[in-house]
Amino acid sequence: MRRILHLDMDAFFAAVEEKLNPALGGMPVIIGARDPRSRGVVSTASYAARRYGVHSGMPLKTAFQLCPLGIFLPVNYDAYIRESRAFKKILHSISPQVEEAGIDEAYIDISEMPEEATQLGRRIKESIRQELALTCSIGIAPNKLLAKIASDFQKPDGLTIVSAVEVPNFLAPLSVRKLIGVGPKSEARLKKMGIATVEQLREVPIETLVEAFGFSYGEYLYAISRGIDDRPLITHWEPKSISRETTFQRDVGDWQIIARTLAELTKEVVQELKEQQQRAKTVTLKIRFADFTTITRAKTLEMPLDEEEPLRKAAFACLKRVELRQRVRLLGVRVGNFATHEGTDTPAMMVPQN
Questions:
Q1: How many CB atoms within 10 Å of residue 302?
Q2: Topology of domain 4-12+78-167, per CATH?
Q3: Which terminus of the chain, N or C, has fewer Cβ atoms within 10 Å?
C-alpha cells in the first residue's frame, strides 16, 4: 500500500517576512510590490490579508482596494530560497524519497517507513516549527493527487490523513475545481454539463467525458474522480529552460530602455545558467505590447554556451526581428535546449497539458 505525504508551507512568502520582522505577525501582509498602485500581481498574502478577499494571482491594485491598510512588500526571493532549502533539508533527513514540487511544497514517499502516519506527520511539523519557526500543512494519502488535496484540507497548520477505504467519501462532496488539473475553463464546461462535485463527475460514463474533452483529458477526468493516480515521485529532474521577465511600471517606447533591460535580464539568466552548470543552445525573446499582444522570437546557436556575450547577442538578434510599433509592456528572455558541462544533453521533462 502506497503512502504519499504532501507538505505545503503555510502562506510561505508572508510567513518568511513575519519571521524576519516579528512585528508583522497577525498583520495583513501582501507580497508583490511595495507600491500597491504598481503593475503586478499578489505572490502571497498572509491569512490576515486573505480575510479581506486577497489571494495569490490577484492584481495588486485590486488587493489594495480590498485591503487598503495592508502591508505591501516586494518579493524577497533570496530569503524565500534560503527557507525553502532549510525545510527541504529536514525532509531529506527523514527520507531520500523526496520530490521537490516547488519552492514551498514537496512530496515524500513514506510507504516503507514503519512509523504511523499521524505520528510521522506531527514529527515533521514539529521539526519545521522548532528549527525554522514556520508552520506547514500536511496531507497523507495513497497517491500524490489525494495527498495534495488533503494538505489543503485544514490549512493553516493542518494534518489530514486519507486511507484507501476513505477515498470515495473524501472526494465525493468536493468541488471539481479541487481536482489537480481542473482549471477554470474545464470547471465551466463541466458546470454546463451539470457537474459541480466530484461525486457528480464520477457518475458520468467515460465515453461521455472522452466525447466532451477528448481521449486523453476525458480519461484523466474519469481516473481522478475515482482518486486514481499512479504517478511516481520524481526525486531528480533537470530544468528545461531558465527565464527572466519584467513588466514595466509604464509602457516603454524608448529603445535604449528596452535594450538596457534586455541586457540585464540576459545577464541574470546567464548567472543562473552558470550556477546550474548548464549550457544553452536556444535563446528566446518575449515581448508583450501595450495592447497585450504577445510575440516571441527565438535563435538557435551552433553550439551550447554559458557565456554572456554570445547569448546577449542572440537575444538582441531576436529583438531586431521585432517591429516596435507600440510601446512595450513586458519584456522577457529565456534560454533552453540545454547540455551539461560534460557534454550530455539534458533530457526533456514531460509536462502534462490540460
A1: 7
A2: Alpha-Beta Plaits (3.30.70)
A3: N
pLDDT tens-digit map of 98-131: 998 889 999 999 998 999 999 999 999 999 999 9
Torsion, Cα of 157, 163, 165, 166 (10° steps): 0
How confident is residue 348, by pLDDT bands cut at 50, 70 and 90? very low
Helices (H), the chain: 12-20, 47-50, 60-66, 77-94, 117-132, 144-151, 167-171, 184-192, 198-202, 206-213, 215-224, 255-275, 308-320
Active site residue 105: yes
What is d(CA 128, CA 91) in angstroms, rounded to the nearest whole number? 9
Q: Which of 83, 99, 105, 211 is catalytic?
A: 105
List the chain domain ranges.
Answer: 4-12+78-167, 13-75, 172-224, 241-340
Query: Given strand 294-305, what is the order of strands in its sheet?
Result: 241-252, 328-340, 278-289, 294-305
Q: Is the pTM of this model over 0.85?
A: no
CB 286 within 8 A of CB 331: yes
At the topology level, CATH places domain 172-224 in DNA polymerase; domain 1 (1.10.150)
Strand partners, 340: 278
For 23, residues 6+ apart whose C-beta sits below 8 A from its C-beta are none
SS3 content of the chain, % helix, strand, coil (to 5): 40, 25, 35
pLDDT at 340 over 70: no
**CA–CA distance, 272 with 11 (Å, rounded to integer):** 26
Nearest to 335 by CA among 272, 290, 288: 272
Q: At what angle do helices 206-213 and 184-192 cross, to 10 degrees?
A: 120
Distance between CA atoms of 160 and 177, rounded to whole angstroms?
19
**Is the distance from CB of 121 to CB of 5 less than 8 angstroms?**
yes
DSSP 8-state secondary structure symbol assigned to residue 156: S
User: Looking at domain 241-340, which CATH architecture does it have?
Assistant: 2-Layer Sandwich (3.30)
DSSP 171: H
Evaluate whether the domain defined by 13-75 bears CATH number 3.70.10.10: no
